[in-house]
Structures are given as structure tokens and as C-alpha cells.
Amino acid sequence: SAGLELSVNNHAADFTLSTGLSPAISLSCLVHNSSQAEELLWYRGTGQVDLKDGNKVNISNICISPVNESDNGVTFTCRLARDKAVQVSVTLDVQFPPQLSGEETLHVEEEKDVTLTCNSKANPQVQSIWLKDNQILTLQQSRHKLYQTSEVFQLSITKVQKSDNGTYTCVVESGLGNGTRDFHLFVEDKKPVFPTEAIIAAAVVVTITILFGIVAQKDKIFKVWKALVSLEKIV
């Protein structure tokens, strides 16, 4: 295979192909400097692509259809079958506007903690802010905390108050468009805390008191029972 070279879409070295969401894109792999028929192989990541017999020798084409978000960052590699070191890779850079998801309605008890999670997928990366009732949220350092990765934008509120009731909007902005998602937060009254240990102790005391009462009155209870038995015999 000395002197043999491959090219993909006229690129002789690894490259990145930028594209948007589209019905299809084609990748064409070509053998250069060959003096005989050379078989080609295609891989998507580490998995081999199944090629038809007429699409393997000296030139091979694959079609990605449709191109969607899951193709972003995926690498396609064309290799020479008899010498897999001869190869060219193309990594897809699929650009798309923000797509948001997350639990829309949250109920939380007063003085509990809550986290609003806005799942955000976008390429390129986006800028994110939170609104409350259509106004930019004023963050309180002691109560609010933000957390952000490439796919998650979170707002955590410590010890929620009734004033935290409202609609929170996750807003993400990119050059390809903006995305918003509303989260409705309902702060409910704090539930009374029942002292479980005290209730159990009181139940034990009541039970013991009843038992002692029965024992203390056992003679009287026995006399009444005997009288009832005697009366039954007479009748």
C-alpha cells in the first residue's frame, strides 16, 4: 500500500464538516495512486457501515439522511481494507438552534429546597438567563445558585418562600435562534410536623393505663360475670 492515499470530499487529511440540520449529506471516499482494485471500508464511530458490493472498490459513497442533532460530533472514517492505517476521518459539526425540555410544573413545601432544571441542546453553545414573571431574576447569593453545562442549565433556590411563587423562564440565546421554556413554581403551606415519638409514647401510656384499670377492677368484673352466669342458669 506504499504511495496509496485516500481522500474524502477532496480532503486528504482528517477534517471537520460543518452543516446544519438537512435532509441529507454525502461523503465520497476515493483511492489515489492505485494500480489495482482496492477495497474500501467505512466506519461510523467504531461501528462498520454496511456497504453494497458495487460501492466498495476504489471509490465509495455514503449518505447520512437525515442529518439531525444526534449526528453532531460523530466521526466517519474511510479506510483501505488491506491496510487500515491508510484512512481519512471526517467529524460532523451539526449546528442547530436551542431545544429545551424540563419539568414544567413544580410543587414545593415552604422552607424546602427546589431545583429547576432546563435541559438545553444547542450547537453552537448558548448564553442562558432566568426570568421570573417576565423580569430578569435578581439573584440572591444566599438563596439562589446557578449551575450550567453544555446541556443543562439549573436554578436552585434554598428554603423557598411564598414570594418565590411564580413562573420562571429559562432563556437561551444563540446565533441560530433563541429558545424559552416556562417553569411554574407553586410554594405550598408548610405541613405541621407531628412528633411521632411523643404520639407513640402517649399511646403506650394509654394502653398501660387501660390494662391497669382492668386488673384493678378484676374482682368486680368477675362478680358481674358470675352473676350473669347464675342468672342464665335460672332462666
UniProtKB/TrEMBL annotation:
Keyword Protein biosynthesis assigned: no
This protein's UniProt keywords: Disulfide bond, Glycoprotein, Immunoglobulin domain, Membrane, Transmembrane, Transmembrane helix
GO molecular function terms listed in the Swiss-Prot or TrEMBL record: cell adhesion molecule binding
Top-level taxon: Eukaryota
TM spans (from-to): 198-216
Pfam families membership: ig, Ig_3
Membrane topology of this protein: Single-pass type I membrane protein
Gene3D superfamilies recorded: Immunoglobulins (2.60.40.10)
Chief place of localization: membrane
Location of the protein in the cell: Membrane
SUPFAM superfamilies assigned: Immunoglobulin
One of the protein's GO biological processes: cell-cell adhesion
Chain ranges of the Ig-like domain: 25-91, 98-186
Designated name of the protein: TMIG1 protein
Annotated source species: Loxia curvirostra
